[in-house]
Amino acid sequence: MSTIRQQIEAVRAEYARLPAGLLAHVERVVAEARDLAARWDLDLDRVELAAWGHDLFRAHPPADQLRLAAEAGLPITETDRLEPVLLHGPIAAVVLRERLGITDDEALAAVRDHTLGAAEMPLIAKVILLADKFEPRKRQRTPVMREIRRLARRDLDAALLCWADWKWVEERTHGWVSHPAHWTARVRWVAEHHADRALPPILPLDDDADPAFGA
Ligand SMILES: Nc1ncnc2c1ncn2[C@@H]1O[C@H](COP(=O)(O)OP(=O)(O)OP(=O)(O)OP(=O)(O)OC[C@H]2O[C@@H](n3cnc4c(N)ncnc43)[C@H](O)[C@@H]2O)[C@@H](O)[C@H]1O
């Protein structure tokens, strides 16, 4: 069985066949994810492994992404057929497990869910999703990502929710459909956010005590 550092080197070697621009992005995500992981006291090697794996299939043509997803037995929704790029994380998670022998379930979940999020996410997955969204190039392109980055240092869940709000606007702007998996995650995050900030109980209405009703 290989060590985690050997697994990282094996995944990293795969980028030799991929576009230089993608490698540069992944290197930025690795640095960003390690920084955030250190703040949340996570195992840096496991986070780095997930960061290296997350975009292995990002640059593949859409037809290949659809074919690979079908070969891997992944569920393919109507939204995935319209936008096969949404399958690149799930494909990478399967290939990392089956071809590269990676068995760290939380790291694989982070790879799988880095585009859409999921209702249940281990800390590693939250860190990878957010680091991918606010690595330096992206926060230069989308300045609101700087605020989400600042928030992630204090509260990962609030940062995810803010990213989901931003994404909702992005989807409407581009005329994209919200992916069902992302919507399920978002609904859960909103419910958890409000549960954490419980409102005072609503008192029963007493119409008789209300002068407006006594008249
Ligand atoms: N072939 C290539 N050659 C050279 N460089 C390359 C390359 N491919 C990638 N790169 C480089 O790698 C960088 C990183 O790629 P990404 O990290 O995928 O960066 P991105 O395209 O800006 O998308 P995003 O940050 O939203 O990422 P996500 O996985 O969430 O989302 C992934 C995509 O899903 C799409 N998406 C998300 N939600 C969607 C929805 N609901 N409907 C439709 N599409 C949706 C968006 O188009 C988004 O771009 C690129 O910016 C580029 O510099």
Description:
With 215 residues, the protein is an all-alpha fold. It has one domain (4-197): Orthogonal Bundle (Hypothetical protein af1432). The protein contains 13 helices and no strands. The protein has helices spanning 4-14, 20-39, 44-53, 62-71, 78-82, 88-98, 105-112, 123-134, 136-141, 144-152, 156-174, 180-196, 211-214. α2 (20-39) packs antiparallel against α3 and α8 packs antiparallel against α10 (144-152). The mean pLDDT is 93. BIS(adenosine)-5'-tetraphosphate is lined by residues 19, 21-22, 25, 55, 58-59, 83, 85-86, 115, 132-133, 138, 171, 176, 178-179. Keywords: Hydrolase, Iron, Metal-binding, Nucleotide-binding.
Helical element count? 13
Q: Rough shape?
A: globular
Going by CATH, the homologous superfamily would be Hypothetical protein af1432
Beta content: under 5%
In short:
Helix content is 66%, strand content 0%. With 215 residues, the protein is mainly alpha-helical.
